[in-house]
Each structure stands twice: as C-alpha cells, then as structure tokens.
Design a protein that fits this description.
A hairpin with a 5-residue loop joins strand 3 and strand 4. This protein has 164 residues and is α+β, with helices and mostly antiparallel strands. It has five helices and seven strands; from the N terminus they run E-H-H-E-E-E-H-E-H-E-E-H. The chain has a seven-stranded mixed beta sheet, sandwiched between helices.
Length: 164
C-alpha cells in the first residue's frame, strides 16, 4: 500500500535515483536525453526544497516524490520510479499536492510528455499557455512546454469520494 509522508534528508538517494531515471524518460519524449542533468546538479538552482516535498513509499521503499513551491501555487516536481509507472502513484502524489495548494494550482509540462499531460488533464488541469524558451534545469537547450492550471476545489469535487 502506498503511503505519503514529508521528505526527510534520508530520502535524498532515493529521490535522486527516481528523478534521474524518470527524467531520462521525460526527455526522450521531448527535447532529447542530451539535455539530461542529474537531480544533484539541478535541485538547488531549481529550488526543489523551496516549498514542501512529499515522498510516496511502498513497503518502506521510496517510489516517487512531489514538490510544491513556497507560494503553494505551483507543483514544481513530480516523478515516479519507472518500475512503478501506471500504478496510481503519480496520481496519488498529484492529488496530495493539489490538496495542499492554494485555490488555483499550476504545473508545467514539456511538449511530448504525453503521459504527464494526460495525468494532469485527467485531474482537471487545462492548458492556459504554450511557451518556447530555455529548458528549465539545463538552459543550454531550448524546449516547448505547456503551463496548465487547475481550480483545486473543482478538481477535488471531481474526485468524489476517492480522495486518495
């Protein structure tokens, strides 16, 4: 059973592995793996710990993580261990993050990352902007992506009784 809890420093190795493996998949579908930089290389500049970070655990193994910014309006990171894709972990992390954000929630997704785009849209997010510019985390590459927005209350109403 998947349990969510706040990030602890002992989780660093696990979330670094999750990010690094899943980021490769994300980049394969978008700008290319040549743009890959590890979590160790990007976490500080990209302000991973500026807000709140939660991890998903399955039998004491960290299998995913999500972060929101200090303003509690942006979901800034959401990654799941590739071995655990399509098991509802990303959705559970996303719903948890939404429930901890202010009334309007934003997220950005790289063009080509259809799995993430489909997840966000299935939870009520709508594309509000398309941007082309420097890739966040590795500014030597250009990328196109979407800004999505969701009204937290409408999203939670859509979940009905399933608030997992």
């Amino acid at each position: 059973m998947i349990q969510l809890r706040k990030y602890q420093p002992k989780d660093w190795d696990a979330i670094a592995t999750i990010h690094d493996r899943a980021r490769i998949d994300e980049l394969k579908a978008s700008v290319g793996v040549e743009a890959f930089l590890s979590l160790a290389a990007t976490a500080e500049d990209e302000e991973l710990f500026a807000g709140e970070v939660w991890v998903a655990q399955d039998n004491n193994l960290v299998v995913g993580f999500v972060a929101i910014d200090s303003e509690m309006t942006w979901i800034t990171w959401l990654y799941v261990l590739p071995d655990c894709y399509r098991q509802g972990i990303g959705r559970k992390l996303l719903r948890h993050a939404i429930s901890n954000c202010k009334s309007t929630v934003y997220v950005s997704v790289l063009s080509g990352n259809d799995a993430a785009l489909n997840l966000y849209q299935s939870e009520g997010f709508k594309i509000v902007e398309t941007k082309t510019g420097k890739l966040s985390g590795n500014e030597s590459f250009s990328a196109t992506g979407y800004v999505l927005q969701c009204d937290r209350q409408k999203s939670q109403i859509a979940w009905g009784a399933d608030k997992s």
